[in-house]
Amino acid sequence: MLNKKTLKDLDVKNKRVLVRVDFNVPINDGEVGDDTRIQAALPTIMYLLKQDAKVILCSHLGRPKGEAQSEFSLAPVAVHLASVIGMPVKFATDCLGEPAQAATSSLKVGEILLLENTRFHAGEKKNDPAMAKELASLADLFVNDAFGTAHRAHASNAGVSKELPSAAGFLLEKELKYLGDTIANAEKPFIAILGGAKVSDKIGVITNLLEKTDKILIGGGMANTFFKAQGYDMADSLVEADAIETARQLIEKARDALVLPVDVVIADDFADQAQSKVVPVGDVPAGWRILDIGPATVVAYASIIKKSKTVVWNGPMGVFEFPNFAKGTFGVAEAVAEADVVSVIGGGDSVAAIKEANLDEKVSHISTGGGASLEMLEGKILPGVDALEDK
Fold first, then answer.
1. What are the respective helix, strand and coil percentages of the chain, to the nearest 5?
2. Across the strands, what pairs with 18?
3. H helices then E strands: how many in the chain?
């Protein structure tokens, strides 16, 4: 792992430990919906409690644009966390000022406090040094366990790291291990599976992974732009006109390493109940559009996956939100889960597919951060990680 201090390098006994967590979870009618991110932070939280620390948690939620808005309050998250761990979780109505100072100064060993949304202050996203200093004044030590925001330099991660002795929490450490070390030292054959709508979102990822992987399997809407670059008529399919030239260059650079679908599922409308049929790539009739990879492609991709030793997957193979056009994504999910490989899954829809298919226990690592995992796949250093102390 990038040579950074981790939680076990800190002496936390009797100390106030500020932990940046990623509790940016869906809230419906005042209740937490999917609590995956809360569960992912538990190993760090429980370790600190066992080591007799005073635990202060901070996070953002949604996009409140730098001012307090009740629908973005973390109060329901405090209630949910308390029910998950079976002990009280105190809540401070602000992450700065008198409410935060009073709550942290009265905190006892073995207690947990959650601070209100850091994005209720404009200084958070600006990485304002004054806000970072004020947050830091609440604690003795800082632990960053929020991989989902590690690609942003904000006051509550990169800023605070400069003010306090700091380390990576267990979740951040695990993410860096899988997305950093696994890729840097991948056992070959190493393949990447990339989907999603846009080539432009993944140019950096493709360019970086072409140097490391044996093959990159392409699916999703971005495949259409590659087809267009090869001269195929895409009819009404989604194509990124301004990325066609880039796609052409990537195909030339990659030679055989870039693998494109051989057949596709097309529809006469962008709707789940549209008429659909399977056709070879070059046979999309006027008025029709590609919405998924076809069954022959799933078989071809599965056989490449089966022969590999390391697989990184980011992005769906089709319009995953339409059940009738999710078969390609589920087919790939099953192939990855059944293969004897080290598998790292990132990006919301790929993760959703693995979970919906009940295959999450069968993959090596599911990343908790979409944007952050993409930036790591591009080979970028994440500011929230970079700011932590070196070992």
1. 40, 20, 40
2. 56, 142
3. 16, 17
Q: How far apart are CA 38 and CA 174, in angstroms?
A: 16
Round to whole Å and give the CA distance between 175 and 185: 15
Residue 258 zone, left/alpha/beta (φ > 0; ψ -120 to 50; rest):
beta
The token pair that represents 234 in the structure block: 């895409």
Determine the pLDDT at residue 3. 85
Distance CA 348, CA 366 (A): 10
| pLDDT score recorded for residue 2 | 66
Q: Exposed, middle or buried by CB within 10 Å (0-12, 13-18, 19+), for 231?
A: exposed
Question: Given this model, what pLDDT does residue 355 score?
Answer: 86
In the prediction, which pLDDT does 332 show? 96
Low-confidence spans in the chain with pLDDT less than 50? none
Picking from 221, 197, 193, 226, the residue whose alpha carbon sits closest to that of residue 209 is: 193
Cis previous bond, 189, omega within 30? yes
Q: Would you say the CATH fold of 178-377 matches that of 7-169?
A: yes
Domain ranges of the chain: 7-169, 178-377
Classify domain 178-377 at the CATH class level. alpha beta
> Closest Cα partner for 153 from 390, 381, 391?
381
Catalytic residues: 37, 198, 348, 371
Q: Strand 310-314 and strand 289-293: pairing?
A: unpaired
- At residue 154, the pLDDT reads 97
At 232-288, the pLDDT tens digits run 999 999 999 999 999 999 999 998 999 999 999 999 999 999 999 999 999 999 999
| Class of 7-169 in CATH | alpha beta
With CA atoms as reference, report the closest residue to 353 among 379, 331, 330, 372: 330
- CB atoms inside a 10 Å sphere around CB 52: 12
pTM of the full predicted structure?
0.87
- Enter the DSSP assignment of 6: B
User: Whose CA is closest to 25, among 65, 67, 70, 59?
Assistant: 59
* CA 243 – CA 228 distance, rounded (Å): 10
Cα–Cα dist 19/347, whole Å:
24
